[in-house]
Every structure is written in structure tokens, then in C-alpha cells.
Amino acid sequence: MSAVAQNPSMPESDAEEAVGRFDNPALMRRRRREEVRFQAYGLIAIALSFSFLVILFGTIITNGWTAFFQTSIELPIKFDAAEIDPEGTRNPRVLAQANYQKLAYQALYEKLGLENPTRQQRRAANELLSRDMDTQLRRMVEADPSIIGTTQSVWGLASGNIDALVKGKIDRKVPQENRQVSDLQIEWIDKLTASGAMQKQFNTGLFTNFASSQPETAGLAVALIGSLYMMLIVVLLSVPFGVAAAIYLEEFAPKNRITDIIEVNINNLAAVPSIVFGLLGLAVFINFAGLPRSASLVGGLVLTLMTLPTIIIATRAAITAVPPSIREAALGIGASKVQTVFHHVLPLSLPGIITGTIIGLVQAIGETAPLLMIGMVAFVVEAPQTPLDPATALPVQIYMWATEAERGFVEKTAGATIVLLGIIAVMSIFAMILRKRYERKW
Amino acid sequence: MVDFSIEPGDLDHSFAASASPAGQQAPSYKVTARNVSVFYGEKQALFNVGIDILDRSVTAFIGPSGCGKSTFLRCFNRMNDTIAGARVTGEILVQGKDIYAPDVDPVQVRARVGMVFQKPNPFPKTIFENIAYGPRIHGLARSKADLEEIVVKSLQRAGLFNEVKDRLDGEGTGLSGGQQQRLCIARAIAVSPEVILMDEPCSALDPIATAKIEELIDELRENYCIVIVTHNMQQAARVSQRTAFFHLGYLVEEDTTDQIFMNPKDKRTQDYITGRFG
């Protein structure tokens, strides 16, 4: 019809034919059905991936959030001079070797009102407390020896099983024979909870404790320090080298066979499985260069090798996205090639470079396999002072905890995963903010 | 291979009579090209072109697409050097000095020979920074006040100052297309070039903006040697004093603009002017 209106001179028969061609109802229905179907596929795909995401985060968070709280017991600890330092020398050696665990147990018996506990009662009571109480008390004495001879109120950690029961992970209704916590212990727990001497407190130990075989005192400190060292090394090495390489390849290198081969190989490098980089690190950095095993320096170097191609590719893409007219403009008023690149091209490609770099870092911080190859899967009980000291990394710590059998470590695994995901989320948000801030349109 | 370029001697006479009213001095050539050929890889894009370009006048290069006019223009500030595989032979003298001599720094050449491009391409910076950038990298301003003076003068010369004087720290890319192009012209003249090359400066602009640019070109002629490439013949006729017609990589004819448009010597020029091809 419209064809007729537009072309009044058109012969009648031709116009009708045109109407038949463009207004075919069967054709139109089919076209609309196709559109609806395609949109439905898209919606289904999005709904599916979103629900998977919800399930994933749901399980991790429901399993893991309790890891941020730990059941603690308030105990009036008598730092008995006769027990700790009978000769009164205050010799650090003597102080370090005293039986602090015994002090904790005695304070607990008193708290529970056991005058002359039987052996059975003692054993049941001892199981309430973490076996790492001695470390906590020893550190207190070492920090301030003047507390010897006084009584201090100390919040000590409950053992892993008691913590699990308080958090409802051990079912009270299960018969006593099949339960890891006895009826007597449950009675004590209820009594302590009612008096306020047993509480769930925020678990700073998750972030400050080192490796431990007891789930209640195991923490992420070594992994956090190790990951931090590695990220610093990756940023310091891969950003300058990666950006420089990308600028050279994109702006200065002649286009010939050699640069083509280099380009292809950089792209291939990005697809190399990470475990291969681990083997490379083992062969080159540890066996050949003689760097120490399990050190975050080696981990950082391996992750740098892994991150470099990502950063080079992202930077090159960001540089190519700068319109050539900007380069012409700068060259046209007599800026040199280097001035053009550093005054104009690089600032304009900065958002892309930052995004690429952070994507590379996020990849690196979540990488596990190569770190296993270079021995970063270690039981480290003290803070790594330098990148040359043995350390672990966050994902490796998750892997190590996941392989532990005890109930408390399941919670720890999920808790550590939340920490890792949180760090990655913060990095991604940071990338987004930076990109928004420096983004330009032309 | 036929050389269609016109020897400088052929033109001196006719030119002196038409362009210089006093007719006493010999015309001063700002740019002289001899035997210029350009190759892109194996392909030759320009064949032995020679031309003399007068100071303080506008010379237009016209011709159909792909005729080599832009390629030739880009020889004058060694912009072709930035294209991989491009090779230029022959010599081009700017102010008597061969800019392709081995001891010449192409970056210096580009400061002496400014360029305005087809699409307005201000830097995504402030208006002030757009113009201050050139003087700054060439050390033309000794103080901040100097720099401000250069910026204001350049904007005034480009006829843009009154429109932007209240927003010098606004984005250069926020201006309208015509204003952006005048900003680019201001940016080019801020480094006091000897020659200004314009590569189809109005092809991305509307008629009103085009008229303003043309007016500006006419004013700038008082002080600069301007070479403009255009595929708009009316524009060539309006703004230029001399016109060169290019075809298939050859310079076919070069003469006063009146002569080219009223009485072309070559058949191809005539065909192009009358719209028979191109």
C-alpha cells in the first residue's frame, strides 16, 4: 500500500505484486516467531547462569560465614609463679617451656565448679578447650612477664568440636554414642553459655593466625602475606615489562616476519596451561637459579610470566583503540614518536591498560597449580619476613584446608574462599572505578 | 613515462603578472618540489611531480579520488614517513632547504610545516592544552604568560577566540565540528609554521562551518603559505589563487586558479572541471 502511495505513477499490477511480496503474513509470522524464540534462548541462558551463580555464592556463604566467628570461653587464669617459673629467674627459656595448657585446664575446672574432678571429668572438660591455649598464654607471659602471680581474665578458644556444636553443625539429637560431644559436655556448654562465659566472638585469628593442625586456631596470615608479596612482585615486574613490550610492538616495531612470530607466540603464551609455568619455575628459578623453595619470590616470578601475555595483549588492544587521528595530530605539530606515545596515546589507553592489568592480577591471585609445583604448599607456622621465606598463597591454603578431614576445616575452607572472592571483588570494583574515571569518548 | 609537471620557468612570467599587483619583485617560492615520486611498497602512487608554491597565497590541489593529491601534500611535512612501506624520492625544498636531506630531522620539518587534517582531530584535552601543547614541546614560550599569549593569539587568528574565551579549560572535543576544525588550525599556527597544509579540511563540515573555514583560509593567506587539498572544485575556485590538477599520480596542469577553471590547457583538466569524470 505504501508502495502505491510513494509511486503514484506505478502501474496497478506492479503495485499489487509489491504488496504481495512485502506483506506476506506467513513470512511475517515466521520472522516474529524467530525473534521471540531467539530472545527466549537468551533469557533462559541468563537465568541459568544467574541461578548457578546464586547457588555457588549461596553455598559458599552459608558454609563460610560462621568461619568469621569462633566460640570462646572466658577463663580466670591464675598465672601461678610456682608452675611457670618456680625459681623466679624470669629466664625466657624457662618461660617458654612452662605448661600453660595445665593452667588453662585448672581455670576451666574451677569455672565448671569441679572441686576434685575425676579422671573422666577432667578428660571431658579438657576437650572443651583448644589445645593451642598454651600458645596464647605463653605469648601473654612473654609479652608481659609481670602478670606472673596474678589472675587474668582471658578469652580462650573452644575446641573445634565444641565450636561446631555451638554453631549447630553437630546435631544434639543424635544419640551420644554417635556424637563427638558427650551429654556431660553439652550440659557444661549450656551452663557456660547461660552465664555468658561462652560466646561466639569475631574471629580475628582467621586473618592473624599461621598454619595449625587445630581448625580453631588455623588462620590465613601466611597465605595473605604470601599472596601480597606475590602480587607486589607481579605488579612491579609484569606491568612495566608488559606495557613496554606492548608499546614497542604496537608503535615502534617494524612489521615483519620476526614481529609476526613474536606476536603469535605472545598470544600462544596466554593459552599455556598454568601448571606448565609451574614446571618452568621449578626448572629455571629453583633448580637452575638456586632460589629457595616455597618462597613467594619464586611464586611471584612464575605468576609474572603467566600475567605478562595477558597484560601485553590488553595493552596492545588499548593502544590500537586510540584513533590514529590523535597520533597524526601530535605528529603534525612536530611531536616526536616518543612524545606522541607518552603524551597522547598512553594516557588515552590507560583505562584499557589498567583493566587488563587488574584482570591479569585477578587471574594471578587465584592461581594454584603453578604454586604447587614450586612447593608453596607448605605448613608454615611463622610469618614470612621476606619474599624469600617459605609462604603459601590464598588459593593454595584453600586447597590445603579442603583436603583436611576435620569438621572445622570445612568451615575454614569456605571462609577462606569468601576472603579470596572478597579480595577479587574489591580488585574488580577498583578496576571498574579507575576505568570509569579515565574513560574518554571521542 | 611522461612528466606532466610544469617547470618553474614556465610559470614565472604569467604568475608575476597575475598574483603580484606591484609586478616588480620576482615571486618568492616557499616550497619547491622536484621529481617527487612516492611508492607504497611496490606500488607507485606519484610520478615525478614538480611544483613551485608561492608564499602568502593559497594553492589548491584538485583531482579525482586516488589521484595522489593527498599523498603529495603529505610529502611536504614528511607525514608519509609514518606510513610503513612508504618511500619518497626526489627533493622538496622548503625555504630553500631540502627536507629530505639526510641531516634533516623529520620532527623539525613537521614543526615548520603545519598540517590540518580531513576530520577535526583535537586532542581530548582542554582547549587551552590543545593549543599550548605544540609551543610547549618546542620550547616556544619562556613563561606561563608567554604561553597564554600564544594561545590567545592563535585562537584569535583562527577566529575562534570570541567563541571560546570563557571556556578555555573546557574540553576541545566538546566544540562543534567547525569549531573543532578551527581549533586544529589554531593549534597548527601556534607553533608558527612556515607552511600550512590542509587535507580536505571541510569535507566533514556543514556548509556554514565550511564557509567560516574558507573565510579563515582567506585571512590566513596574508601571513602564511597555504596548500589545500580539496575534492570540492567550487571550494578550490573560491579560496585558492593557484590550482594544480592531479590525475592518476601525475600532475597534469598547474596554473592560476582562474586559468585552470576558465581556460584549462589539458583535455583531462577540462573533462574534470566540467564534471565528465571524477
Explain the layout of strands and helices:
The complex is a heterodimer of chains A (442) and B (278).
Chain A: H1 2-6, H2 12-22, H3 25-64, E1 69-78, H4 81-84, H5 92-97, H6 100-112, H7 119-126, H8 133-143, E2 151-157, H9 160-166, H10 183-195, E3 198-202, H11 205-208, H12 221-252, H13 257-269, H14 274-288, H15 296-320, H16 324-332, H17 337-365, H18 369-373, H19 394-402, H20 407-438
Antiparallel strand pairs in A: 1-2, 1-3
Chain B: H1 8-19, E1 29-40, E2 43-54, E3 58-62, H2 69-73, E4 86-94, E5 97-98, H3 106-112, E6 113-116, H4 127-137, H5 144-157, H6 161-164, H7 177-189, E7 195-199, H8 207-220, E8 225-229, H9 233-239, E9 242-247, E10 250-256, H10 257-262, H11 267-273
Structural summary, described in words:
Chain A contains 20 helices and 3 strands. Chain A is mostly helical. Chain A folds into 3 domains: 63 residues; 138 residues, no CATH class; 218 residues, Orthogonal Bundle (MetI-like fold), CATH 1.10.3720.10. In chain A, strands 2-1-3 form a 3-stranded antiparallel β-sheet. The longest helix of chain A has 40 residues. Chain A is extended. In chain A, 36% of the residues are buried. A 6-stranded mixed β-sheet of chain B has the order 6-7-8-3-9-10. A 4-stranded antiparallel β-sheet of chain B has the order 2-1-4-5, with no helix packed on it. The chains are: A mainly alpha (442), B alpha/beta (278).
